[in-house]
């Protein structure tokens, strides 16, 4: 049997498409932001002088465990994802990847990830990784269908990886570690209340109890976005207090500027409660976090 260049090309494209589907299962865009935050946490824990090899191991291990959690989250939700426009073309609901293959992929990623963390950066980091996995997959994912408090649980799971980056450096947890956790915890409310509003019809159709589903006026979602954006602004100055570094006033000013800017966008969303203001708030959140991480990173070198 002869193989034409065209047939070879088609086979290659097919293989690439399968790889792309497996990558999509791991929610790579969220992972990039999350792993950036983990790296910054390692830098803050060591005043800008992390052990680069340990940081590398923490990032690789966290990436594997986080990827596993996202695969399992999508495996559990494969039938509900089919009911939502935003998610119905994902690899599992669309049938491009079989359920068993995804489940196996998730098991391998998770067990390799936790073992890798334990072997390279220690049991504490591996234990936080395993606890985060359980919280996201076993508690948050089913809770999306039972209570609007699911977002608070998801936000704990989203913020815990920061403590993995911190603990990987061997630095004991202190007020600054708590402040980093709080920054990422509170950030997720404006971020997600905007998303939950934009996709409220999707979520309602799939039986997801998000705040704009149980309160279609959007008043509660707006209030949560404002409250959390305010708390975030206040807590974002804590890492720069009591530090004998010249850059502290600049970093405090930058953190307040970013926080107040996002707060104003949250207020606008809360007042208008329309798709345009929600999209603006989502964008503001996606700009705020990398910018705030940049300020944290710059602090020791200013
Ligand atoms: C309660 C917690 C969270 C929920 C429920 C949530 C949910 C979502 C959803 C549904 C999207 C897709 C929006 C769209 O398709 O238009 C999204 C986007 C995004 N999220 Fe989150 N998220 C949470 C926490 C986080 C965390 C902790 C990070 C990283 C630090 C993160 C980073 C991102 C990024 C970078 C995007 C834009 C990329 C994309 O469109 O997929 N999120 N989030
Ligand atoms: C180390 C480790 C295990 C880290 C896991 C961290 C992690 C992935 C947190 C995710 C935060 C979160 C709630 C995302 C949205 O999921 P969703 O199910 O609401 O999003 P979807 O509707 O798009 O599937």
Q: Rounded to an integer, what's the Rg over CA atoms? A: 21 Å
Supply the helix-strand structural class.
Answer: mainly alpha
State the CATH superfamily name of the largest domain: UbiA prenyltransferase
Order of helices and strands: HHHHHHHHHHHHH
Total of domains: 2
| Percentage of residues in strands | under 5%
Number of helices: 13
What is the CATH C level class of the largest domain, in words?
Mainly Alpha
- Poorly predicted spans: none
EC number: 2.5.1.141
Pathway: Porphyrin-containing compound metabolism; heme O biosynthesis; heme O from protoheme: step 1/1
Protein name: Protoheme IX farnesyltransferase
Subcellular location: Cell membrane
Question: What report would you give on this structure?
Answer:
The chain folds into two domains: 11-172, Tetracycline Repressor, domain 2, CATH 1.10.357; 174-302. The chain is 76% helix and 0% strand. The protein is built from 13 helices and no strands. The protein has helices spanning 5-25, 28-45, 52-76, 78-81, 99-120, 123-143, 150-168, 175-198, 200-205, 211-214, 219-235, 248-272, 275-298. α2 packs across α7 (150-168). The longest helix has 25 residues, at 52-76. The model has no long low-confidence stretch (mean pLDDT 97). Bound molecules: protoporphyrin IX containing FE and farnesyl diphosphate (FPP).
Keywords:
single chain, 302 residues, mainly alpha, Tetracycline Repressor, domain 2, 2 domains, 0% strand, binds protoporphyrin IX containing FE, binds farnesyl diphosphate
